[in-house]
Amino acid sequence: MNKFARYDKTCDSGLGYCDAESDLPSKILIKGGTVVNAEHQEVADVYVEDGLIVAVRPNIKVADGVRVIDATGKFVMPGGIDPHTHLAMEFMGTETIDNFFTGQAAALAGGTTMHIDFVIPVDGSLSKGYEAYVEKAKLACMDYGFHMAITKWDDIVPKEMEIMVKEKGINSFKFFMAYKGSLMVSDDLLLEGLKKCKSLGALAMVHAENGDAVFEGQKRMIELGITGPEGHALSRPPVLEGEATARAIRLAAFVNAPLYVVHVMSTDAMEEIARAQKSGQRVIGEPVVSGLILDDSVLWDPDFITAAKFVMSPPIRALGHGKTLQAALSTGVLKLVGTDHCTFNSTQKSFGIDDFRKIPNGVNGLEERMHLVWDAMVESGQMSATDYVRVTSTECARLFNIYPRKGAILAGSDADIIIFNPNATFHISAKSHHSRSDTNVYEGRSGKGKVEVTIAGGRIVWENEELKVVPGSGKYISMPPFNYLYHGIDKADARYLTSLKAPVNRIRPSL
Ligand code: URP
Ligand code: ZN
Ligand code: ZN
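Above: inputs. Below: predicted complex with zinc ion.
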Protein backbone atom coordinates (compact mmCIF):
# COMPACT_ATOMS: atom_id res chain seq x y z
CA MET A 1 0.00 0.00 0.00
CA ASN A 2 2.74 2.45 -0.81
CA LYS A 3 0.82 4.60 -3.25
CA PHE A 4 0.32 8.31 -3.17
CA ALA A 5 -3.14 8.60 -1.72
CA ARG A 6 -5.65 11.37 -2.01
CA TYR A 7 -7.50 11.67 1.23
CA ASP A 8 -11.24 11.07 0.90
CA LYS A 9 -13.09 10.74 4.18
CA THR A 10 -16.27 9.57 2.47
CA CYS A 11 -14.64 6.26 1.45
CA ASP A 12 -15.19 3.39 3.88
CA SER A 13 -11.59 3.35 5.05
CA GLY A 14 -11.04 7.04 4.43
CA LEU A 15 -8.68 6.15 1.59
CA GLY A 16 -9.09 7.26 -1.99
CA TYR A 17 -6.30 6.76 -4.48
CA CYS A 18 -5.08 8.70 -7.46
CA ASP A 19 -2.70 7.25 -10.02
CA ALA A 20 0.42 9.32 -9.55
CA GLU A 21 3.30 7.86 -7.58
CA SER A 22 4.68 9.99 -4.82
CA ASP A 23 6.59 13.00 -6.09
CA LEU A 24 7.00 14.57 -2.69
CA PRO A 25 10.32 16.40 -2.28
CA SER A 26 12.83 15.02 0.18
CA LYS A 27 15.00 18.16 0.25
CA ILE A 28 13.28 21.18 1.72
CA LEU A 29 14.54 24.58 2.84
CA ILE A 30 12.26 26.61 5.10
CA LYS A 31 13.49 30.20 4.83
CA GLY A 32 13.21 33.16 7.14
CA GLY A 33 10.75 31.89 9.74
CA THR A 34 10.95 32.22 13.50
CA VAL A 35 12.08 28.82 14.72
CA VAL A 36 10.45 28.07 18.06
CA ASN A 37 11.71 25.40 20.44
CA ALA A 38 10.59 24.85 24.03
CA GLU A 39 13.47 26.89 25.47
CA HIS A 40 14.26 29.42 22.77
CA GLN A 41 13.12 31.13 19.58
CA GLU A 42 15.14 32.80 16.82
CA VAL A 43 14.86 33.74 13.15
CA ALA A 44 16.63 30.99 11.18
CA ASP A 45 16.39 28.76 8.12
CA VAL A 46 15.73 25.04 8.48
CA TYR A 47 17.14 22.56 5.97
CA VAL A 48 15.60 19.10 5.70
CA GLU A 49 16.92 16.10 3.81
CA ASP A 50 15.72 12.49 3.74
CA GLY A 51 13.42 12.80 6.71
CA LEU A 52 15.84 14.56 9.04
CA ILE A 53 16.58 18.15 9.99
CA VAL A 54 20.12 18.72 8.74
CA ALA A 55 20.75 22.34 9.71
CA VAL A 56 19.12 25.20 11.62
CA ARG A 57 20.85 28.56 11.14
CA PRO A 58 20.43 31.88 9.32
CA ASN A 59 21.14 32.18 5.58
CA ILE A 60 21.46 28.55 4.53
CA LYS A 61 22.41 28.30 0.85
CA VAL A 62 21.23 25.32 -1.17
CA ALA A 63 21.73 23.95 -4.69
CA ASP A 64 18.98 23.51 -7.31
CA GLY A 65 16.42 20.77 -6.77
CA VAL A 66 15.55 21.82 -3.25
CA ARG A 67 11.99 22.90 -2.51
CA VAL A 68 12.17 26.33 -0.85
CA ILE A 69 9.33 27.54 1.37
CA ASP A 70 9.23 31.16 2.47
CA ALA A 71 8.23 31.31 6.15
CA THR A 72 8.84 35.03 6.71
CA GLY A 73 6.53 36.32 9.46
CA LYS A 74 5.56 32.78 10.44
CA PHE A 75 6.52 30.36 13.20
CA VAL A 76 8.42 27.18 12.40
CA MET A 77 7.69 24.74 15.22
CA PRO A 78 8.01 21.03 16.01
CA GLY A 79 4.98 19.05 14.85
CA GLY A 80 2.52 18.39 17.65
CA ILE A 81 2.69 15.15 19.61
CA ASP A 82 -0.62 14.00 21.07
CA PRO A 83 -0.02 11.81 24.15
CA HIS A 84 -3.59 10.47 24.31
CA THR A 85 -5.64 8.99 21.45
CA HIS A 86 -7.89 6.03 20.72
CA LEU A 87 -7.89 5.03 17.04
CA ALA A 88 -9.74 1.90 15.90
CA MET A 89 -10.59 1.20 19.53
CA GLU A 90 -13.29 -1.33 20.37
CA PHE A 91 -15.23 0.25 23.20
CA MET A 92 -18.76 0.12 24.65
CA GLY A 93 -19.97 -2.37 22.04
CA THR A 94 -18.70 -0.49 19.00
CA GLU A 95 -15.48 0.77 17.41
CA THR A 96 -14.24 4.36 17.08
CA ILE A 97 -15.01 5.80 13.67
CA ASP A 98 -11.43 7.00 13.07
CA ASN A 99 -8.84 4.36 12.26
CA PHE A 100 -5.06 4.78 12.07
CA PHE A 101 -5.37 6.35 8.61
CA THR A 102 -8.30 8.73 8.99
CA GLY A 103 -7.38 9.80 12.51
CA GLN A 104 -3.79 10.46 11.50
CA ALA A 105 -4.80 12.27 8.30
CA ALA A 106 -6.93 14.56 10.48
CA ALA A 107 -4.00 15.01 12.86
CA LEU A 108 -1.63 16.03 10.04
CA ALA A 109 -4.14 18.57 8.69
CA GLY A 110 -4.08 20.14 12.15
CA GLY A 111 -0.30 20.11 12.65
CA THR A 112 0.12 17.00 14.80
CA THR A 113 2.79 14.67 13.44
CA MET A 114 2.92 11.96 16.11
CA HIS A 115 0.54 10.46 18.65
CA ILE A 116 0.61 7.77 21.29
CA ASP A 117 -2.38 5.41 21.21
CA PHE A 118 -3.63 3.08 23.92
CA VAL A 119 -3.37 -0.64 23.17
CA ILE A 120 -6.27 -2.44 24.84
CA PRO A 121 -5.47 -6.04 25.83
CA VAL A 122 -7.58 -8.83 24.29
CA ASP A 123 -9.18 -10.90 27.07
CA GLY A 124 -6.59 -9.39 29.41
CA SER A 125 -3.72 -10.60 27.21
CA LEU A 126 -1.13 -7.92 26.51
CA SER A 127 0.54 -9.80 23.66
CA LYS A 128 -2.78 -10.41 21.88
CA GLY A 129 -3.67 -6.75 22.31
CA TYR A 130 -0.28 -5.70 20.99
CA GLU A 131 -0.62 -7.92 17.89
CA ALA A 132 -4.11 -6.53 17.21
CA TYR A 133 -2.81 -2.94 17.33
CA VAL A 134 0.18 -3.77 15.11
CA GLU A 135 -2.41 -4.85 12.50
CA LYS A 136 -4.58 -1.76 12.99
CA ALA A 137 -1.54 0.51 12.68
CA LYS A 138 -0.54 -0.86 9.26
CA LEU A 139 -2.64 2.01 7.83
CA ALA A 140 -0.51 4.61 9.58
CA CYS A 141 0.50 7.70 7.59
CA MET A 142 2.44 9.36 10.42
CA ASP A 143 4.63 8.26 13.30
CA TYR A 144 3.02 6.77 16.38
CA GLY A 145 3.80 4.97 19.61
CA PHE A 146 1.82 2.82 22.01
CA HIS A 147 0.81 2.96 25.66
CA MET A 148 -0.82 -0.20 26.97
CA ALA A 149 -3.80 -0.64 29.29
CA ILE A 150 -3.68 -3.22 32.09
CA THR A 151 -7.12 -4.71 32.70
CA LYS A 152 -6.42 -7.80 34.80
CA TRP A 153 -3.67 -9.26 36.99
CA ASP A 154 -2.30 -12.80 37.13
CA ASP A 155 1.14 -14.45 36.86
CA ILE A 156 1.35 -13.79 33.13
CA VAL A 157 0.56 -10.04 33.03
CA PRO A 158 3.75 -8.80 34.79
CA LYS A 159 5.86 -11.06 32.54
CA GLU A 160 4.13 -9.62 29.48
CA MET A 161 4.67 -6.08 30.81
CA GLU A 162 8.37 -6.86 30.88
CA ILE A 163 8.28 -8.07 27.26
CA MET A 164 6.39 -4.96 26.18
CA VAL A 165 9.01 -2.70 27.77
CA LYS A 166 12.15 -4.65 26.87
CA GLU A 167 11.20 -5.90 23.40
CA LYS A 168 8.26 -3.89 22.05
CA GLY A 169 9.15 -0.30 22.85
CA ILE A 170 6.24 0.44 25.20
CA ASN A 171 7.21 2.49 28.26
CA SER A 172 3.82 3.34 29.82
CA PHE A 173 0.82 1.45 31.17
CA LYS A 174 -2.65 2.81 31.87
CA PHE A 175 -4.88 1.71 34.74
CA PHE A 176 -8.59 2.54 34.50
CA MET A 177 -10.07 3.31 37.93
CA ALA A 178 -13.50 3.61 36.23
CA TYR A 179 -15.62 1.63 33.72
CA LYS A 180 -16.77 -0.92 36.31
CA GLY A 181 -17.40 -4.32 34.77
CA SER A 182 -15.13 -3.76 31.77
CA LEU A 183 -11.78 -1.96 32.07
CA MET A 184 -11.81 -0.99 35.76
CA VAL A 185 -9.08 -2.24 38.08
CA SER A 186 -9.13 -2.61 41.87
CA ASP A 187 -6.72 -0.87 44.26
CA ASP A 188 -4.72 -4.07 44.80
CA LEU A 189 -4.23 -4.44 41.04
CA LEU A 190 -3.23 -0.78 40.81
CA LEU A 191 -0.66 -1.29 43.58
CA GLU A 192 0.79 -4.36 41.86
CA GLY A 193 0.86 -2.41 38.60
CA LEU A 194 2.60 0.59 40.15
CA LYS A 195 5.28 -1.65 41.66
CA LYS A 196 5.83 -3.46 38.36
CA CYS A 197 5.98 -0.20 36.39
CA LYS A 198 8.58 1.11 38.83
CA SER A 199 10.76 -1.98 38.51
CA LEU A 200 10.65 -1.67 34.70
CA GLY A 201 11.16 2.10 34.59
CA ALA A 202 7.76 2.43 32.89
CA LEU A 203 5.35 5.30 33.52
CA ALA A 204 2.09 4.36 35.25
CA MET A 205 -0.93 6.28 33.97
CA VAL A 206 -4.37 6.45 35.56
CA HIS A 207 -7.88 7.26 34.42
CA ALA A 208 -8.90 8.66 37.79
CA GLU A 209 -12.59 8.35 38.66
CA ASN A 210 -14.10 6.26 41.45
CA GLY A 211 -15.76 3.59 39.31
CA ASP A 212 -17.83 2.09 42.14
CA ALA A 213 -19.29 5.48 43.03
CA VAL A 214 -19.89 6.29 39.34
CA PHE A 215 -21.88 3.03 39.09
CA GLU A 216 -23.95 4.15 42.10
CA GLY A 217 -24.40 7.64 40.62
CA GLN A 218 -25.62 6.17 37.34
CA LYS A 219 -28.21 4.04 39.16
CA ARG A 220 -29.36 7.09 41.09
CA MET A 221 -29.91 9.10 37.88
CA ILE A 222 -31.87 6.30 36.21
CA GLU A 223 -34.04 5.93 39.34
CA LEU A 224 -34.73 9.68 39.16
CA GLY A 225 -35.83 9.23 35.54
CA ILE A 226 -32.80 11.15 34.20
CA THR A 227 -31.88 9.06 31.16
CA GLY A 228 -30.44 11.73 28.81
CA PRO A 229 -26.83 12.94 28.32
CA GLU A 230 -27.11 15.35 31.28
CA GLY A 231 -27.36 12.22 33.46
CA HIS A 232 -23.80 11.38 32.38
CA ALA A 233 -22.41 14.55 33.96
CA LEU A 234 -24.65 14.32 37.02
CA SER A 235 -23.72 10.69 37.73
CA ARG A 236 -19.96 11.29 37.91
CA PRO A 237 -19.33 14.69 39.58
CA PRO A 238 -15.87 16.25 40.11
CA VAL A 239 -15.62 14.90 43.67
CA LEU A 240 -15.33 11.36 42.26
CA GLU A 241 -12.49 12.46 40.01
CA GLY A 242 -10.80 14.28 42.88
CA GLU A 243 -11.11 11.23 45.16
CA ALA A 244 -9.62 8.81 42.63
CA THR A 245 -6.84 11.24 41.72
CA ALA A 246 -5.94 11.61 45.39
CA ARG A 247 -6.06 7.83 45.91
CA ALA A 248 -3.83 7.09 42.90
CA ILE A 249 -1.39 9.79 44.02
CA ARG A 250 -1.20 8.37 47.54
CA LEU A 251 -0.71 4.80 46.30
CA ALA A 252 2.03 6.00 43.94
CA ALA A 253 3.66 7.85 46.87
CA PHE A 254 3.43 4.70 49.00
CA VAL A 255 5.59 2.78 46.50
CA ASN A 256 7.54 5.88 45.38
CA ALA A 257 6.59 5.49 41.72
CA PRO A 258 6.10 8.34 39.22
CA LEU A 259 2.49 8.83 38.14
CA TYR A 260 0.78 10.35 35.08
CA VAL A 261 -2.87 11.37 35.48
CA VAL A 262 -4.59 11.38 32.07
CA HIS A 263 -7.46 13.68 31.07
CA VAL A 264 -7.55 15.92 34.15
CA MET A 265 -11.02 17.46 33.77
CA SER A 266 -11.74 19.17 37.09
CA THR A 267 -10.32 21.71 39.50
CA ASP A 268 -10.68 19.02 42.16
CA ALA A 269 -8.27 16.64 40.39
CA MET A 270 -5.88 19.44 39.42
CA GLU A 271 -5.61 20.62 43.04
CA GLU A 272 -4.69 17.11 44.20
CA ILE A 273 -1.89 17.07 41.62
CA ALA A 274 -0.69 20.53 42.65
CA ARG A 275 -0.62 19.48 46.31
CA ALA A 276 1.40 16.34 45.53
CA GLN A 277 3.88 18.29 43.40
CA LYS A 278 4.33 20.81 46.22
CA SER A 279 5.30 18.01 48.53
CA GLY A 280 7.90 16.85 46.02
CA GLN A 281 6.02 13.96 44.44
CA ARG A 282 6.62 13.13 40.76
CA VAL A 283 3.11 13.49 39.35
CA ILE A 284 2.27 14.62 35.83
CA GLY A 285 -1.17 16.03 34.97
CA GLU A 286 -2.48 15.95 31.41
CA PRO A 287 -5.44 18.17 30.55
CA VAL A 288 -7.24 17.52 27.26
CA VAL A 289 -8.54 20.14 24.86
CA SER A 290 -12.22 19.47 25.64
CA GLY A 291 -11.59 20.01 29.36
CA LEU A 292 -9.72 23.27 28.74
CA ILE A 293 -12.22 24.76 26.31
CA LEU A 294 -15.74 23.39 26.78
CA ASP A 295 -18.27 23.47 29.61
CA ASP A 296 -21.05 21.07 30.48
CA SER A 297 -24.01 23.28 29.48
CA VAL A 298 -23.95 21.47 26.12
CA LEU A 299 -25.04 18.23 27.82
CA TRP A 300 -28.39 19.91 28.56
CA ASP A 301 -29.05 20.66 24.88
CA PRO A 302 -32.60 19.54 23.97
CA ASP A 303 -31.34 17.86 20.78
CA PHE A 304 -30.09 14.38 21.73
CA ILE A 305 -27.26 14.12 19.17
CA THR A 306 -26.02 17.63 19.92
CA ALA A 307 -25.80 16.74 23.60
CA ALA A 308 -24.56 13.14 23.17
CA LYS A 309 -21.58 14.13 21.05
CA PHE A 310 -20.09 15.76 24.17
CA VAL A 311 -20.34 12.61 26.32
CA MET A 312 -16.87 11.57 27.46
CA SER A 313 -15.32 10.45 30.74
CA PRO A 314 -14.49 12.08 33.05
CA PRO A 315 -17.25 14.43 31.92
CA ILE A 316 -16.82 17.93 30.57
CA ARG A 317 -17.30 20.05 33.70
CA ALA A 318 -19.29 23.13 34.69
CA LEU A 319 -18.09 26.57 33.64
CA GLY A 320 -15.04 27.55 35.71
CA HIS A 321 -13.16 24.24 35.71
CA GLY A 322 -11.74 24.92 32.22
CA LYS A 323 -10.40 28.30 33.33
CA THR A 324 -8.60 26.85 36.37
CA LEU A 325 -7.15 24.09 34.18
CA GLN A 326 -5.87 26.72 31.73
CA ALA A 327 -4.26 28.63 34.61
CA ALA A 328 -2.66 25.41 35.87
CA LEU A 329 -1.31 24.72 32.38
CA SER A 330 0.17 28.19 32.14
CA THR A 331 1.92 27.87 35.53
CA GLY A 332 3.26 24.37 34.83
CA VAL A 333 1.13 22.41 37.33
CA LEU A 334 -0.33 20.66 34.28
CA LYS A 335 2.42 19.76 31.88
CA LEU A 336 1.20 18.74 28.41
CA VAL A 337 -2.04 18.73 26.44
CA GLY A 338 -3.68 15.66 24.90
CA THR A 339 -6.97 15.16 23.12
CA ASP A 340 -8.33 11.75 24.18
CA HIS A 341 -9.49 11.63 20.52
CA CYS A 342 -12.06 8.83 20.61
CA THR A 343 -14.69 9.54 18.00
CA PHE A 344 -18.11 8.02 17.45
CA ASN A 345 -20.59 9.21 14.84
CA SER A 346 -24.25 10.14 15.41
CA THR A 347 -25.48 6.61 14.76
CA GLN A 348 -23.11 5.24 17.38
CA LYS A 349 -23.96 7.98 19.89
CA SER A 350 -27.65 7.08 19.35
CA PHE A 351 -27.09 3.68 20.97
CA GLY A 352 -27.78 5.60 24.18
CA ILE A 353 -30.94 7.43 23.10
CA ASP A 354 -32.93 5.93 26.01
CA ASP A 355 -30.09 5.47 28.49
CA PHE A 356 -27.02 7.73 28.79
CA ARG A 357 -25.00 4.75 30.08
CA LYS A 358 -25.03 3.32 26.55
CA ILE A 359 -23.72 6.44 24.78
CA PRO A 360 -20.19 5.54 23.64
CA ASN A 361 -17.82 7.82 25.57
CA GLY A 362 -15.48 10.00 23.58
CA VAL A 363 -14.93 13.23 21.63
CA ASN A 364 -12.76 14.42 18.74
CA GLY A 365 -9.72 16.72 18.99
CA LEU A 366 -6.74 15.38 17.02
CA GLU A 367 -7.19 17.86 14.18
CA GLU A 368 -8.22 20.76 16.40
CA ARG A 369 -5.75 20.57 19.31
CA MET A 370 -2.92 22.73 17.94
CA HIS A 371 -5.28 25.52 16.84
CA LEU A 372 -7.41 25.55 19.97
CA VAL A 373 -4.47 25.48 22.39
CA TRP A 374 -2.83 28.37 20.53
CA ASP A 375 -6.06 30.34 20.58
CA ALA A 376 -6.92 29.63 24.23
CA MET A 377 -3.44 29.92 25.68
CA VAL A 378 -1.22 32.07 23.42
CA GLU A 379 -3.70 34.43 21.80
CA SER A 380 -5.24 35.02 25.23
CA GLY A 381 -1.84 36.02 26.60
CA GLN A 382 -1.58 33.16 29.09
CA MET A 383 1.38 31.46 27.43
CA SER A 384 4.37 32.25 25.18
CA ALA A 385 5.08 30.56 21.85
CA THR A 386 7.95 28.62 23.46
CA ASP A 387 5.65 27.37 26.22
CA TYR A 388 3.13 26.39 23.53
CA VAL A 389 5.77 24.20 21.88
CA ARG A 390 6.56 22.65 25.26
CA VAL A 391 2.95 21.68 26.10
CA THR A 392 1.97 20.52 22.61
CA SER A 393 5.14 18.64 21.66
CA THR A 394 8.41 18.79 23.62
CA GLU A 395 7.17 17.72 27.05
CA CYS A 396 5.50 14.67 25.53
CA ALA A 397 8.74 13.73 23.76
CA ARG A 398 10.67 14.13 27.03
CA LEU A 399 8.21 12.16 29.14
CA PHE A 400 8.09 9.26 26.72
CA ASN A 401 11.85 9.38 26.22
CA ILE A 402 12.07 10.22 22.53
CA TYR A 403 13.53 13.73 22.85
CA PRO A 404 15.32 15.25 20.90
CA ARG A 405 14.49 12.87 18.05
CA LYS A 406 10.96 14.26 18.41
CA GLY A 407 9.71 17.53 19.89
CA ALA A 408 12.51 19.78 18.64
CA ILE A 409 13.70 21.73 15.61
CA LEU A 410 17.37 20.77 15.93
CA ALA A 411 19.95 19.35 13.55
CA GLY A 412 19.56 15.56 13.76
CA SER A 413 15.91 15.58 14.86
CA ASP A 414 13.18 13.96 12.74
CA ALA A 415 11.77 16.42 10.22
CA ASP A 416 8.32 16.75 11.81
CA ILE A 417 7.67 20.45 11.38
CA ILE A 418 4.78 22.88 11.12
CA ILE A 419 4.69 26.33 9.58
CA PHE A 420 2.22 28.34 11.60
CA ASN A 421 0.81 31.67 10.48
CA PRO A 422 -0.21 33.68 13.57
CA ASN A 423 -2.17 36.14 11.42
CA ALA A 424 -4.34 33.63 9.55
CA THR A 425 -7.66 32.33 10.85
CA PHE A 426 -8.82 28.78 11.53
CA HIS A 427 -12.43 27.59 11.22
CA ILE A 428 -13.79 24.30 12.55
CA SER A 429 -16.68 22.37 11.06
CA ALA A 430 -17.64 18.73 10.56
CA LYS A 431 -18.18 19.64 6.89
CA SER A 432 -14.52 20.47 6.36
CA HIS A 433 -12.71 18.42 9.01
CA HIS A 434 -10.84 15.23 8.10
CA SER A 435 -12.14 12.91 10.81
CA ARG A 436 -14.76 10.45 9.57
CA SER A 437 -17.17 11.57 12.27
CA ASP A 438 -20.24 13.49 11.11
CA THR A 439 -20.05 15.77 14.13
CA ASN A 440 -17.44 17.94 15.79
CA VAL A 441 -17.57 19.11 19.40
CA TYR A 442 -15.90 22.39 18.33
CA GLU A 443 -18.38 23.05 15.50
CA GLY A 444 -18.47 26.69 14.41
CA ARG A 445 -15.39 27.80 16.34
CA SER A 446 -12.81 30.01 14.70
CA GLY A 447 -9.78 31.84 15.94
CA LYS A 448 -6.40 33.33 15.15
CA GLY A 449 -3.41 31.25 14.07
CA LYS A 450 -3.32 28.54 11.43
CA VAL A 451 -1.15 25.56 10.54
CA GLU A 452 -0.42 26.28 6.87
CA VAL A 453 2.16 23.56 6.20
CA THR A 454 2.81 20.23 7.91
CA ILE A 455 5.98 18.29 7.20
CA ALA A 456 6.01 14.74 8.57
CA GLY A 457 9.02 12.46 8.21
CA GLY A 458 10.55 15.03 5.85
CA ARG A 459 7.60 15.12 3.42
CA ILE A 460 5.13 17.95 2.92
CA VAL A 461 1.82 16.32 3.77
CA TRP A 462 -0.39 19.38 4.29
CA GLU A 463 -0.17 22.53 2.18
CA ASN A 464 -2.72 24.81 0.50
CA GLU A 465 -5.50 23.07 2.45
CA GLU A 466 -4.62 19.78 0.77
CA LEU A 467 -3.50 16.51 2.32
CA LYS A 468 -1.00 14.23 0.60
CA VAL A 469 -0.77 11.16 2.74
CA VAL A 470 0.63 7.71 2.16
CA PRO A 471 -0.94 4.81 4.09
CA GLY A 472 1.77 2.60 5.53
CA SER A 473 4.33 5.42 5.60
CA GLY A 474 4.02 6.07 9.35
CA LYS A 475 6.72 4.56 11.51
CA TYR A 476 6.30 2.91 14.89
CA ILE A 477 8.38 4.82 17.41
CA SER A 478 9.89 2.60 20.04
CA MET A 479 10.07 4.37 23.41
CA PRO A 480 12.72 3.36 25.97
CA PRO A 481 12.00 3.16 29.74
CA PHE A 482 13.46 5.24 32.60
CA ASN A 483 12.44 8.76 31.60
CA TYR A 484 13.59 11.82 33.54
CA LEU A 485 11.05 11.20 36.32
CA TYR A 486 13.13 8.18 37.29
CA HIS A 487 16.34 10.15 37.75
CA GLY A 488 17.30 10.00 41.40
CA ILE A 489 14.39 7.82 42.45
CA ASP A 490 16.81 5.22 43.82
CA LYS A 491 18.14 7.89 46.19
CA ALA A 492 14.60 8.56 47.44
CA ASP A 493 14.17 4.81 48.00
CA ALA A 494 17.44 4.69 49.94
CA ARG A 495 16.37 7.70 52.03
CA TYR A 496 13.08 5.96 52.81
CA LEU A 497 14.86 2.80 53.96
CA THR A 498 17.19 4.80 56.19
CA SER A 499 14.25 6.73 57.65
CA LEU A 500 12.64 3.52 58.89
CA LYS A 501 15.26 3.00 61.56
CA ALA A 502 14.19 -0.62 61.47
CA PRO A 503 14.38 -3.49 62.02
CA VAL A 504 15.51 -2.77 65.57
CA ASN A 505 18.20 -5.17 66.66
CA ARG A 506 16.64 -6.29 69.95
CA ILE A 507 18.12 -8.19 72.78
CA ARG A 508 15.99 -11.28 73.23
CA PRO A 509 14.87 -11.78 76.79
CA SER A 510 16.40 -14.86 78.34
CA LEU A 511 13.39 -16.69 79.71
O1 URP B 1 -14.57 9.17 27.15
C1 URP B 1 -13.42 8.77 26.98
N1 URP B 1 -12.46 9.33 27.65
N2 URP B 1 -13.20 7.77 26.10
C2 URP B 1 -11.98 7.13 25.85
C3 URP B 1 -11.59 6.16 26.92
C4 URP B 1 -10.87 6.83 28.05
O2 URP B 1 -11.36 6.78 29.17
O3 URP B 1 -9.80 7.40 27.86
ZN1 ZN C 1 -9.65 7.36 30.30
ZN1 ZN D 1 -8.61 8.12 26.66
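Residues 77-486 form a domain with the TIM Barrel fold (CATH 3.20.20.140).
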